[in-house]
């Protein structure tokens, strides 16, 4: 439970913004409130949710900061073309109204400014100071772990792995496995549970490996799943020829569906009343291994 709350993250990000951005660029307190509210909405996003520029500008376009009023209109033809291009045809006709051009220019600059604030300040601050992840039983909610706290949690999990049956390879052993044995690789990350860490690996995607040579080249090694295709085909044939050889093992969701379907059909045809069905969930020790 060592993660920071959303309010704490927002307070930290806002304090950084206040210390970096000149006060004239942030405007008055009404703009502060709207900005902080939008940052809070951004921090509170769930996984797979989007946050576009219109949401960044919510309640802001009606009260622009005073620095925009200091930008004056120029009679330069290049300026008119820059302001009006893509918006109206008056630039070609030379009849562009200065007040409309000024409003259009201010709106455009303000949108660029807010976009820069979120993309070049808010997001980098969060990514540099927090490890952002989901948790085992909260798959949609996002949690923010301060980087020093996360490092301690990850180090403890790594120590636990070494105490079990894992071994950390040196560079020589690491590269020899890649070059000679051609094993599949996958990136591994830790997923927080209530009081421990779970190892999560994407065995479908190929892993980028950086070579330890003078050129510092990087290349992709095939994924774990692709390296096990031949073994998978052999096990499937064994199971097809002798269904009981592998016990209750299944090779995917389709096999699970087939087992449930046959069970349902047999139960439905044999009895007048559907019996009570008990589903047992077991957390098997060392199941990952």
Automatic annotation (TrEMBL):
Q: What is its EC number?
A: 2.7.7.49
User: Which keywords does this Swiss-Prot/TrEMBL entry list?
Assistant: Chromosome, Magnesium, Membrane, Metal-binding, Nucleotidyltransferase, Nucleus, RNA-directed DNA polymerase, Telomere, Transferase, Transmembrane, Transmembrane helix
What organism is recorded for this protein?
A: Scilla peruviana (Hyacinth of Peru)
Say what the protein does.
Telomerase is a ribonucleoprotein enzyme essential for the replication of chromosome termini in most eukaryotes. It elongates telomeres. It is a reverse transcriptase that adds simple sequence repeats to chromosome ends by copying a template sequence within the RNA component of the enzyme.
**Origin superkingdom:** Eukaryota
* Reaction(s) this enzyme catalyzes, per UniProt: DNA(n) + a 2'-deoxyribonucleoside 5'-triphosphate = DNA(n+1) + diphosphate
Segments crossing the lipid bilayer: 113-132
The places in or outside the cell where this protein is found are: Nucleus; Chromosome, Telomere
Its family? Belongs to the reverse transcriptase family. Telomerase subfamily.
Domain Telomerase ribonucleoprotein complex - RNA-binding positions = 7-163
Q: Which GO terms describe its biological process?
A: telomere maintenance via telomerase
Its main localization is: nucleus
A Pfam match is Telomerase_RBD
Q: Does the keyword Methyltransferase apply?
A: no
Entry protein name: Telomerase reverse transcriptase
Q: Does the keyword Ribonucleoprotein apply?
A: no
Gene Ontology cellular component terms for the protein in this record = chromosome, telomeric region; telomerase catalytic core complex
State the Gene Ontology terms under molecular function: metal ion binding; telomerase activity; telomerase RNA binding; telomeric DNA binding
